[in-house]
Amino acid sequence: MMRRFIAPRNTDISLRSPYGVQLPAVETVWFTAKDGFELNFKHLPPVPGTTDMGPVMLVHGAGVRANLFCPPDIITLPAMLSAAGFDVWILNWRSSIDLEPSEYTLDHAAVFDFPAAVVKILELTKKKTIKAVVHCQGSHAFTMSIASGLLPEVTRVVANSTAMTPKVRNAAAIKLPIAMATLGKMTDYFDPQYGLYAPSFSAKLMDFLVDVTHHECRNAVCKHSSFVYGVGFPTLWSHHNLDPSTHDWIEGEFAHVPVSLFRQTRACLKEGHLVPAMDYSEIPTQLGREAPRTDAVFTFITGGDNRTFRPIAMRNSWKFFNRHSPVPLGAPPKHGFKEYPGYGHLDMFLGQYAEIDVFPDIIRWLSED
């Protein structure tokens, strides 16, 4: 049986206040996905006295949790959104390391998690629409859901790193099938926590492989995350973008990811777009080929130095959505794209200067009608 993840640090979220404002307390709100899986939000209300900007849902990637948006010693996106008047709901979907491990696919989240999450937020806020910021595999699952017509209440989305058309570096595309044919047959989960505690032969083998290939820093979880999520030294960020306390803090923020998700990711990479792994009628068979079943406006963003998903992947998602969203001659495209030089995959949210370089853009896009 797999060891349940226990974070070595305080599981509470502590946020630095931007602009000297007093932030409300973060509360945990539990709810049930459509298949009975127990999920929750970390809810940060808007700062009292600010203009009501409505609810926004933040969606993390795989093998992490809602806390990942909230490093303790930098000014974070949730804090800035709250200060700008947004009602912030950070979703712990079924990939969260705070929840029971499961061998999920993108389809499970697309069909069961996100529709239930949106309904719950609108029920509690008494609003009719919602906006979203989505990241990595969370962006994949969310894009699958919204393109299938399952999230009609979502009006605006900022998607980071990857969306409808994932693409990785050549070395990662070679590495993934090898990993699936070897380590993937020995375990049901890959877990960066193996850098701190390796409970099985496969975990010890993975730790050995990381030790002999990754020498970029002394943080075992950072190095294991680089090994699990692609090819890079490191893969998920540039070290110079993280302050030392954030680099230490990530040791408690990465854990189990099921092999089932990597198996589906490989299929998506092979096809060049998202493909379902399950036979759910809610997801169209022509997903990734037909027009997305949504009127939401997307902004696709990525770091220019992204070593997890290639920047061209987000440019291709942007082109795909605009191709299916015609506008009058001479009008600007419906959907937007921006690439951030010097940033990678996750330092878009964890970077010590993201409050200056990235977050104001996200807030501006979410503030548009």
From TrEMBL:
Q: Give coiled-coil spans as residue ranges.
A: none
Record's superkingdom? Bacteria
Q: Which Gene3D superfamilies match?
A: alpha/beta hydrolase
**Cited InterPro entries:** AB_hydrolase_fold (IPR029058), Cholesterol_Oxidase (IPR052542)
What are its cofactors? FAD
Q: Which family does it belong to?
A: Belongs to the GMC oxidoreductase family.
UniProt protein name: Esterase
Q: Which organism is it from?
A: Mycolicibacterium hodleri
